[in-house]
Amino acid sequence: MVVPLTLALGSTPAAAAAACSAKAGPYQKQVERFLGRKADGKQSAADCRAVRAFQKTHGISPAAGYAGPLTWQVMNVMTQQKAAGKNPNKAGKCPTNKGRIACVDLTRQLSWIQDGRKLRFGPVPVRTGRNGDETRTGLKRIYWRNIDHVSSLYDVKMPYAQFFDGGQAFHSVTKSVWNPPGSAGCVNMRPSDAKTYWNMLRNGDDVYVYGRKPGT
C-alpha cells in the first residue's frame, strides 16, 4: 500500500489542502535537493511553494507543500528513470532473444522497445497499475490494437490502445504519468510516446513486464 501523508496542518482534509505547510516533512532534505533548493531540512515559505508546485503538476494530494513519503516516492522514481540513461536493460532482465519486444519495468516505471540487445526507442516514463490493480508481470503478446479505443468499463478514452493481457494495454493519457497512485492496470504513456509505440509495434509483438511498482 502507498504510505499516507502525515500532515499537521489543521483538523480537516479541506484545511490541509487549503494551507501551505509550515512543517518540515520526513523527506525534507531529499525533496529540497531534488528541487535544487538549499538542502537544510528546514521548511520555508519558498520551499513550500516549490514543493506544492511539484505536487500540483503531478496530481499529488493534498498539494500542501509537505515533503512526505508520497512526494519523495514520486521524485525517487524520477531519479531512477534518469539514471537509466540509454541503457535501461543493463541488468538484462528483459529478454534479448525475442527480436522486437516492448519491455516494461514496474520498479522504475519505465518502458522501452528493443530488438535483441539493440535499443530501438526509449526508455520512456510510464504509469502502471495501482495497488490492487497491478499490471500483471510476465511475457505477453500484443493481440489487439485500436487507435481510438474507448473503455467500456470506465467510459474513458484510450488513444493508441495496444492490448497485451486481457484488458491491460499501452495507451495514451493526458494526465501526468507520475500521477499517483497509478492506473487500473494499463500502461499509461505520454501522447507522443504512445503514438511512437503504435507506429513501431504490431499484433504478435512480445511484451515483457517485470518488477514491482513502488507503493504496491
TrEMBL record:
GO terms for molecular function: peptidoglycan L,D-transpeptidase activity; transferase activity. Residues 99-210 form the L,D-TPase catalytic domain. GO terms for biological process: cell wall organization; peptidoglycan-protein cross-linking; regulation of cell shape. The keyword Signal applies. The active site is at residues 171, 186. The keyword Metal-binding does not apply. Residues 1-16 form the signal peptide. Pathway: Cell wall biogenesis; peptidoglycan biosynthesis. InterPro entries: LD-transpeptidase, LD_TPept_cat_dom, PGBD-like_sf, PGBDSf, Transpep_catalytic_dom. One of its GO terms (cellular component) is extracellular region. Pfam families: YkuD. It comes from the Bacteria. Keywords: Cell shape, Cell wall biogenesis/degradation, Peptidoglycan synthesis, Signal, Transferase. This is Secreted protein. It comes from Streptomyces clavuligerus.
